[in-house]
Amino acid sequence: MIAFWRSSVGKKNIVAVTGAILIGYLILHMLGNLNSAFGPGADEARVDWYAHWLRDFGEPLLPHAFVLWAVRVILLSALVIHITGIVQLTKRNRAARPANFPAKRIGRSFESMAMLGTGVLVLAFIIFHILQFTTLSIHVTPVEEGAVYSNLYYAFQKWYFLVIYVAALLLIGMHLRHGVWSLFQTLGFDNPNRNPKLRHGSTVFVLVLIVGFGAIPVLFFTDVLDPPNAAAVITSSIGAVGSLTGGVA
Amino acid sequence: MNFTLEIWRQFDGTDETEAGRFETFKVTDINPDASFLEMLDQLNERLSHEKKRTIAFDSDCREGICGACSLVIDGTPHGPQQVTSCQTYMRDFIDGQTIKVEPYRANTFPVIRDLAVDRGALDRVIQAGGYISTTTGPQPEPNSMPVSPEIQEKAMDAAICIGCGACVAACPNGAAMLFTGAKVTHLNLLPQGQPERESRVIGMVEQMDAEGFGGCTNYGECSRVCPQEISIDVIGMLNREYRKAKTKKKSKPEKAMTTQ
Amino acid sequence: MTVFDSNIPPGPLPEKWQNWLDTHKLVGPRNRAGKNVIVIGTGLAGSSCAASLGAQGFKVKSFCFQDTPRRAHSIAAQGGINAAKDYANEGDSIHRLFYDTIKGGDFRSREANVWRLAQLSANIIDQAVAQGVPFNREYSGALATRSFGGVLVQRTFYTRGQTGQQLLLGAYSALEHQVRAGNVQVFNRHEMQDVVLVDGEARGVIVRNLITGDIERHAADAVVLASGGYTNVYYLSTNAMGSNVTATWRAHKRGAYFANPCYTQIHPTCIPQTGEYQSKLTLMSESLRNDGRIWVPRKSGDDRPPAEIPETERYYYLEERYPAFGNLAPRDIASRAAKVVCDDGLGVGGTGRGVFLDFRDAIAQQGKESIERKYGNLFEMYTRITGDDPYETPMMIYPAPHYAMGGLWVDYELQTTIPGLFAIGEANFSDHGANRLGASALMQCLADGYFISPHTVTAHLAKNHDEVSTSDSAFDEVESDVRSHIQKLMDVGGGTSAQAFHREMGHVMLDKCGMSRTAEGLDEALAEVREIKGEFWNDLRVDPGDEEFNQSLEYANRVSDFFELAELMIHDARRREESCGGHFREEHQTEDGEALRDDEHFAKTTAWEYGGDDPVPHDEALTFEEVQLATRSYK
After folding, report:
1. pLDDT digits 0-9 by tens, C523-535
2. Does chain C touch chain A (at least 3 C-beta pairs within 8 Å)?
3. Residue A234 confidence (pLDDT) above 80
4. Bridge partners, C195 (sequence order)
5. H helices then E strands: how many in chain B?
6. C148 and C437 in contact (C-beta within 8 Å)?
7. Within 10 Å of residue C534's Cβ, how many Cβ atoms?
8. Average predicted confidence (pLDDT) for chain C
9. Given this model, what pLDDT does residue C635 score?
10. Predicted structure pTM score
C-alpha cells in the first residue's frame, strides 16, 4: 500500500477513491436534507426527527452516536488523504515542467483547469459550514442545538447566507463535473464506448446535486416552508443532522 | 507566402547560464505546399549564405511516422493541425502571420540545442517493461492463438504510437501517461502479453515516476495533440492495470525480465 | 588480396542452410559474455540482429544516429511482409516465393541466398507475432493476408498500412529488453565514421557522438553494418532525411567491395513533387494498386476534371500492356511505364509528371466502407498532404527513388570482403537482384537480423581472436583520418549549405542515372557530378564548432560520401551494357520498350573495389540450378 501511495498512478487512484467516498457522503447528505421539505410538522419537524434517529442509530448494539462519529472519522480521513495526495501530486507535476512556459490551453475544460481553485474554495466553505451548523459557532441568526429546522429556517431568511450557499454549490458542482468523470478515468472504469456517457453522466449528476441541495435554502428563503413552531424547538433536544452532516446546504 | 518567425535559440541545455531566448526571422516567398520543416530548411539555407549559425531541429522521415520532429508551434506541440510538424504545411497558416517556434517544454526532455531535445526518458520507460520477453527462436504457430479482429484493432489503435513525446509536451503536468498507457494497452490486450501483464505495468509506471514525469489530471491535452489520435482511454487502461497489479495478492516485482 | 568467394555450402538448394547450420562453429554459453559485437544501425535488420545476439549472451554495442533506435527508417514501410505460409490455400510454397523473388529480381540474384530467404520467411511471422506485433486478423482470429505487386498469391501479412512500424517496434522492444537485461548497450545520436581493421579483420569502429562532437573508439570481435540503403543519393527520395551511405561507404574505402550500385528501385506510387524546396517524396503503399486503377487521358493536354473523362478516352496503360498482372505489375515495370506515358506528354498534374490512381470502380464494386477499411489511413494521409479527397477524385502518383538493391558485397554468411565485417538488410546487395518485389524488404531485413546473422556472426566469433584494445595503433590511424576529414569540411569556409549541393547532385542523378539511362547521359552525369563535387569542396558552409551538436556538419559529412558513391553508381551503370530490373539502359530494349537482358555477358554480380577515380570491378558469376533463365514477362 505504501508503494502504491508512492507511485503517481497509485496516489491518483487513492485520491479518486477518497473523492468517491466524499461524493457518496454528499448523496446521503442531500437525501437527508430533503427531509426539511416536509416542513415544521405538527409536533416535531421531520428533519429533526431524522437527525435524532441518526444519532441513535445502532443503539443499543452500538454505543450512543457511534455511527455518527465513525462516519465523521472516515470523512475527515478521506478529506485529509484527498488533499494531501493532491498537494503532493501537484508538486510533482509542477516539477515536471519548466517554470514560465505554461502549456497553451488547447481543449481542456474550464472545470479541469480550475480544480485546485475550486478545491480550495470548497474546503473553505466546508469549514464555514461546520462552524455554522455543527458547532453552532456563528451567531448571526438564532441557533440552538438540536433544532435543525429552526436553525435552517432563520439562517436562510438572510439573503447573504443564501448567496453563500448557492455559490458554494456551484463551486462544488464545477469541482465534481470534472471530478466524477475523472474518477472513473483514474480508476480505469471507463472504456471507449462508455466514455461519452460518463462525461454526460457526470454533468447530469452535478445538476441533480445542485437542485437537490439548492432547493432547501431557496424554499426557506421564499417562505414556501413555514416557520418552525415553537413547541417543536423546545421538545427536540438533539441536532443530529447538523452535527453529522455539517448542516444543510 | 511570407512569415515572421520567433524561434527559440539555445546553445546548450546543460549549461544553466545559457537560458535561451527568442530570435526573430523573416521568411519570404514560401510555397504554401512546403511543410513547416521545409520552410525551416529554406531559412537554414539562407542562414548558411549569410554565414550565420543554422537552427538546430530534429526531423527524419518527414512523412509523419518516425516521431523525430519535436517543435512547439504557436504553443501547440507539432502545430495547429494535430499532425506531426513535417506534415504541417504552410498553407495551414495565414500569410504574413507571426509564428512562434519552441522546443518541447518538459524537464524530462532537456534541450540539446535550439529546438532539439533529448527524449531518452521514453526509451527507459520502454526498457522497464514495454516488451514481451520472448527471444529469437522457434515460436508457436500464430493461428494456434487466435486474436479477434476487435482486440487486434484495439491493440493496434494503441500500438501506432510514434513515440514523439508531444503528449508530454502538451500536458500541463509533463506526464507521459498517454505514451506509457498506449504501450501497456497494446501489449496487455494481446494474448502474448498476458504472462508479464502485471510486471510490465508496474515496471513502466515506476520508471515513469523515477524519470520525473508528472501525473495525470485528466485534462486530455495529450490526446488532443497526438498525431496518431491515441485516445485517453489508454490512460484509463493503464490506471486499471496498475491498480489490479498492485492489489493482487502475489504481485511479482518487475524483476521478471531475464534472458536465456 | 581479399578472398572473393561466395562460400555457398554444398548440397541441394533446400538443404544448404540446414547443412551450414549443422556444421558451423559455436561459442559456449559461458564464453559469450567475453565476445563483443558492434552493430551499426537500428532498423529492422540492426535491431533484430543486436537483440538476437544479445539474447544469446554476447555483449553488443548498438549505434544509431537518430535520437532513439525506434526512429530508423524501416518504420516507414507501409504495405506488408511476405511469407510462404499458404494460409490462403493457393498452393503457395517456398519454391514459389523463391521463384517470384528471383524472377522479380530479373535473374540477377544468388539462388542459394534467395532460397534461404524464402525458407525463413514463415519463421519471421511467428517471431513477430510472439513479440506482440498486431497483424491484421480475419474474423476467425487467424492471420489475414493480401496480394502485393508482382505475384499472383496472397502471401503478404500486414498491420493496417503500418507494417514496417509495427515490425520495427517489435524488434525495438526486443532490443530494449536486451538493454534491460544488460546484454546490449545502445548509443543513440552516435554516427559511425569508419571501421578499424587490425590484421586485415574488422575489429572496431570510430564513431562521432553527435551531441558532444566527441570522436570515440569502440573495439569488438565483429562489426555488423545494418545502416540501410543509399537512395538519398537522388536527394528527393522516399528515404528519411538522415538516411545515408557513410557507414557502408567508409567500409568500402577500407576494402569492402560494393556490389551492383546501379541497381536502385524507383517506387511507382508516390505523391508527385510540388515545389523546388521539397525535401522528400512521400510514398503511398503499393497495396493501393490492389484496388486502384492506373490511367492517364489518351489525349495529350486533356485538362478536363478526371471524372468527366469518359471510359473510352482513358488509357489504362498497365492493364493494356500487361493483361496478366495489370495494375499489379512489378515496381520497375510500373514505374517505367509511368515515365513513358509522361514522356509522351500524357502526364497529369501541375508538372505533367503524374498519373491517376483511381478508386472509382473499386468504390462502386465494394462500397466505400470496404475501401475505407483497407486504405482509410492512406487516403487520410494523401488528403493531408495534397488537399484532395481520393474518395471523390483520383489520386495522382509518380515514381520516386525508394530502395537500393545494390550494397556491400557479402558472401552466403553475409560477410563482406573484410573478414569480421558483416552487412545485413538493405546495406548489403544480396537477395533482390536487380529489382525488389513489394513486401520483400521487411522479410529480408528480418531474416538477416533474426535468423541468419546471429549464426554467421557466431561462426566468426568462434574463431580465436586476440584481444584488441582501442589504444591499438590501428585506431590511432583511422581516428586521425576521421578527424582530418571533418576538419577538411570545417575548413572550406564557403557560403552554400550542403543541402543545396545535395539537391543539385540529386537532380543530375535522377535525370541521368535514374529510371532510364544511356551511355551518353551517364558520361555527362559523371562530369557533372564531379563538377558539383568540386564546387562542394570549394564553397561549402558548415556551422562553426565541430566539438558540439552541429547538424550542418553531420549533413555535409554525409553528402561528401554521396558524391563519391554517385560516381561509382555511374561507373556501374555504364559498365552494365544490358537492361535488367531497376537498371534500364535505353540502348538495350525490345521493340515494345521492355528491358532486354544480356545473360551471356551479364549474368553476374559486379563487385567494385575502391580505387578513387578508377574503381576496379570484380565479377561474381551467377549460376542457376533451379530456375531457367527466362525473359521476365508480366504480360
Report:
1. 999 999 999 999 9
2. no
3. no
4. C205
5. 8, 7
6. yes
7. 11
8. 94
9. 78
10. 0.93
Judge whether C296 and C347 are in contact, CB under 8 Å: yes
Is residue C61 within 8 A of residue C37, CB to CB? The reply is yes
**Chain C meets chain B (3+ C-beta pairs below 8 A):** yes
DSSP string covering C232-289: GGGSSSSS-TT--SHHHHHHHHTT--EE-TT-EEEEEEEPPP--TT-----B--GGGG
Q: Return the CATH fold of C482-601.
A: Methane Monooxygenase Hydroxylase; Chain G, domain 1 (1.20.58)
Short-list C258, C267, C263, C333, CA closest to C573: C263
Nearest to B62 among C131, C134, C241 (CB): C241
Q: Which of C71, C331, C517, C585 is catalytic?
A: C331
- ∠ Cα A15 A17 A23 (to 5°): 100
Q: Tell me if B235 and A182 make a contact (CB, 8 A cut-off).
A: no
> In this complex, which chains have at least 3 CB pairs below 8 Å with chain B?
A, C
- For chain B, domains (ranges, CATH) are 3-117 (3.10.20.30), 120-247 (1.10.1060.10)
The answer to whether C132 touches C170, Cβ cutoff 8 Å, is yes
pLDDT for residue C133 is more than 60? yes
DSSP H helices in B76-196? 120-127, 149-159, 166-170, 177-189
> For C428-450, what is each residue's pLDDT tens digit?
998 999 999 989 999 999 999 99
pLDDT, position A130: 94
* The CATH number of the domain covering residues in C267-401: 3.90.700.10
Scan for cell 527508417, then name that residue: C73
Gap between the Cα atoms of C528 and A140, Å rounded: 96
Between A132-141, A177-186, B246-255, C173-182, the lowest mean confidence (pLDDT) is in: B246-255
Q: Among 1.20.1300, 1.10.287, 1.10.490, 1.10.10, what is the CATH number of A2-98+108-245?
A: 1.20.1300
Cis ω on the peptide bond leading into residue C69 (within 30° of 0)?
no
